[in-house]
Amino acid sequence: MKRPCSISHLIITMSLLSGSAGGLRGQSYNDAVNAYNRGNDLNIEEKHVEAIVEYEKAARWFSAIRPDSVELASCLHNLGLQYQAMGEYGKAEPLYVRSLEIHESKAGKNHAHTATILNSLANLNSLLGRPTKAESLYRRSLEIREITLGKDHPDTASSLHNLAQVYASVADFGKAEPLYRRALEIFEAKLGRDHALVGQVLNSWANLYLNMGLYDKADVLSRRSLEIFEARLGKEHRQTALSLLNQGNRLMVWPTAKVLLH
Fold it and tell me: How far from each other are the two terminal CA atoms of the chain, in whole angstroms?
């Protein structure tokens, strides 16, 4: 599950509290805010179809009363997240692109939330099998986050992890491994050694070692990843199930490989 972009909830709330809604404090603006927040709630519950309905309502209202605003940009971004979660990539991409255009224009090309939209667009390109484009977008997102948030921020670590995933997908192991290591260090330092994001990096790194033929190292990281997911998310969580499946696949490969290598 992807959480909706945090930008809009913050900006919209601040606008309402400060009364700075551009002179448009009527029911339409309030309706747009309410629809947007309902979309956020539905997204958290992974009710993507229902979330799309609410985000589209909000987008229509914002288009009418605050065209090309950051509020509209966030609606479009979050709509893209819903379509991506449903596998409708062709609908997600133009929403991300338009959201990025608006946000770069209104908030700036080096804003932290611009990096969030870039990251989403990079994720989509990775899913579409465009590693070169994904790498470029992830790198730009990483650069912005390092400047605006700091080199040791968890969001920066997420960008490092994502960039490592791209390199791993094209078997560029030498570039991927140090990025996994750095992402892991940041997550452990900032979030704790047993955080679910630590488990995600460990699982990705284990897959890298598997593809490199380093089966002992893969097994160690895989087991630790699974322990974290079981403890933090529960044994029936989807991420735990995927980790267990990955470990099972590794265990099928590892004994045969060990015999062959010895």
Answer: 42
Q: What gap in Å lies between CA 186 and CA 132, rounded to an integer? A: 26
Domains in the chain with CATH codes: 1-107 (1.25.40.10)
d(CA 163, CA 159): 6
pLDDT at 248: 64
Burial 73-84 (b: 16+ CB within 10 A, else e): bbbbbbbbbbbb
Q: How far apart are CA 94 and CA 78, in angstroms?
A: 12
| Distances 171 to 68, 99, 167, 168, 239 between C-alpha atoms, Å | 40, 32, 6, 5, 24
- Is the Cβ–Cβ distance between 58 and 36 less than 8 Å? yes
State the Rg of the chain over Cα.
Answer: 20
pLDDT tens per residue across span 35-87: 999 999 999 999 999 999 999 999 999 998 888 899 999 999 999 999 999 99
Question: What is the Cα–Cα distance from 225 to 241, expressed in whole angstroms?
Answer: 12
User: Distances in Å between the alpha carbon of 127 and those of 11, 200, 227, 235?
Assistant: 30, 17, 27, 27
Of the candidates 205, 190, 185, 188, the residue with the CA atom closest to the CA atom of residue 246: 205
Residue 242: predicted pLDDT = 73
Q: What is the dihedral of CA 117, 118, 120, 122, to 10 degrees?
A: 170
